[in-house]
Here is the input.
Amino acid sequence: MPLYLTEANIKSLLTTADALDAVEGCFRRLAAGAVENRPRERLRLEDGSFAVMGAVDRELELAGLKTYAWLPGGTPFVVVLFDTRRAELAGVIEADKLGQLRTGAASGVAAKYLARAGATSLGVLGCGWQARSQVACIREALPGIERVVAYCRTPERLAEFCKETGAEAGESHRDPAGCDVVVTVTTSRDPVLRGEWLRDGTLVCAVGANYPSARELDNVVLERAAFVCCDSREQARIESGDLIEPVEAGVLDWLEVHELQEVVAGELEGRQSDDDIIVFKSNGIAA
Here is the structure.
């Protein structure tokens, strides 16, 4: 009988350390060619969208898909896994918490490999559901983080977020931008992070925007970046406005956009200097 896991099961069973290990292992298998990943596809609904994304992991002998409906009343997520060796349905997983942890873990893996040595501060732009796992997973990946600075436009949400995570409240978008690692995890369609605010050596994890018409980073962030990577270049070319528009403007070339798997596998160094500004664009991939 297939395993069925609820949101409550995931919350009680899966830790940030588990998620980091799983996502890092996935990037290694992607680099080794053991995983085939397909970008997200979206179908229009009357008041929202229906998304499907799939992958095959030949080493784990699993095939699966994540699917969800983005609707005014909520967004139900589910992952369906198939055991390819036994030719049977392996599991069905309610996947809101799972996706939150996976997204946070991707940034955590990026921080592990691309943050400058001795990073002690984390800035977070955005105080929603996804922002919480960003803080948890990056703290797990970088135990030296001593200070978290957060900012969002709603004072009540900011206060709640700071109380829950132990962050300090910034007074503007600029305050988190002065940290060693800066995460943008908003629903904004327009840039919330300006390159002129960043100090040398910053790692930027851009998480929130995954539509070609939405951006969290301005062009100066990309102009200052010594290294740019993403979780999937194929998917980024479809839905990463943070990269698509700078490429169209001549600020960036797709040949300069690498994949995090190359860094995890040791194929690319990524950071060359403690002063390098690094950008990781996270879209969230099925693998």
The chain has nine helices and 14 strands. The first strand starts at residue 3 and ends at 5. The CA atoms of residues 135 and 165 lie 7 Å apart. The two ends are 24 Å apart (CA to CA).
